[in-house]
Write a structure and sequence with these properties.
Blueprint (H helix, E strand, L loop, with lengths): L1 E15 L3 E8 L3 E7 L16 E8 L7 E8 L2 H5 L2 H17 L7 H12 L7 H15 L5 E5 L8 E4 L5 E4 H4 L7 E2 L12 H22 L7 H13 L1
Parallel strand pairs: 6-8
Antiparallel strand pairs: 1-2, 1-4, 2-3, 4-5, 7-8, 7-9
Helix pairs in contact: 2-7, 3-4, 4-6, 6-7
Length: about 240
């Protein structure tokens, strides 16, 4: 029997048989892991199994390649924060859906795990959350091999007047170097490099750039699956508050 214990955020729940569920959890040292929770539809356990909940989990299986089963204990719930806040609810749904979509199973990503938990713990703080979410998307792309290089111009090497991002390479391009290709470039807003005010409108513009790499670089690497609609719903919520 193989067994391990870890802590993580619940990403996804789906019914399995009459009384059990299969859950996916993003854990600190075992990455995205799935397993059966027996009795998961019961009145005792079901309220614990809400997406975004922080759980203490123990996984057991006869063989490593088996689905295995979880026993779960609640660490903290994030449901109360999001139920009265549409942006927070959309944010939680987007983060959990994207992690479930993008993460390889059983591959640990400690830096991304830390950032993800920090982001989820900021839910409900509308003044800082949009920028924190943008920074998280950039960290996700970097962790999974599609990071943006915004340090200098890909054409001239200059660090001045960086205005665009190449949709092919993810590198910054100076305004003067874009030339006739300017209309094909993606916007590089100051908030993407830690400058300027974190205006929601600028964050939304920046998310159009990160969205390009999620949809056209990351998604095809996963078998050309469609990016979760929860991300678009979050951006719609941002637009309503801008």
């Amino acid at each position: 029997m193989i067994e391990w214990r870890d802590e993580g955020a619940l990403l996804k729940v789906r019914k399995h048989g009459e009384t059990s569920v299969i859950i996916e959890v993003f854990t600190a040292t075992h990455g995205r892991a799935a397993g059966i929770v027996r009795g998961g539809t019961s009145r005792k356990i079901a309220p614990i199994l809400q997406p975004g909940a922080q759980l203490d989990v123990t996984w057991k299986a006869r063989l490593e390649e088996h689905l295995g089963s979880f026993t779960v204990e609640p660490v903290r719930s994030r449901a109360a924060v999001v139920m009265s806040d549409r942006v927070a609810l959309a944010g939680l749904n987007a983060v959990t859906a994207i992690l479930a979509f993008a993460l390889p199973e059983r591959e640990d990503h400690p830096p991304l795990y830390k950032r993800s938990i920090q982001l989820l713990d900021l839910l409900g703080q509308g003044d800082v959350w949009p920028l924190a979410y943008l920074q998280w998307e950039m960290a996700l792309l970097n962790e999974l091999g599609f990071g943006l290089d915004l340090s200098s111009c890909a054409v001239t090497g200059s660090t001045e007047n960086l205005t665009y991002v190449s949709p092919r390479t993810g590198r910054a391009v100076a305004q003067t170097a874009a030339g006739e290709w300017a209309d094909r470039m993606l916007p590089l807003t100051p908030v993407m490099v830690g400058e300027g005010d974190a205006d929601v409108t600028d964050v939304i513009t920046a998310l159009s750039t990160t969205g390009h790499f999620l949809e056209n670089h990351l998604a095809p690497s996963l078998g050309d699956r469609t990016l979760p609609e929860a991300r678009a719903r979050l951006i719609d919520q941002f637009k309503r508050t801008s």
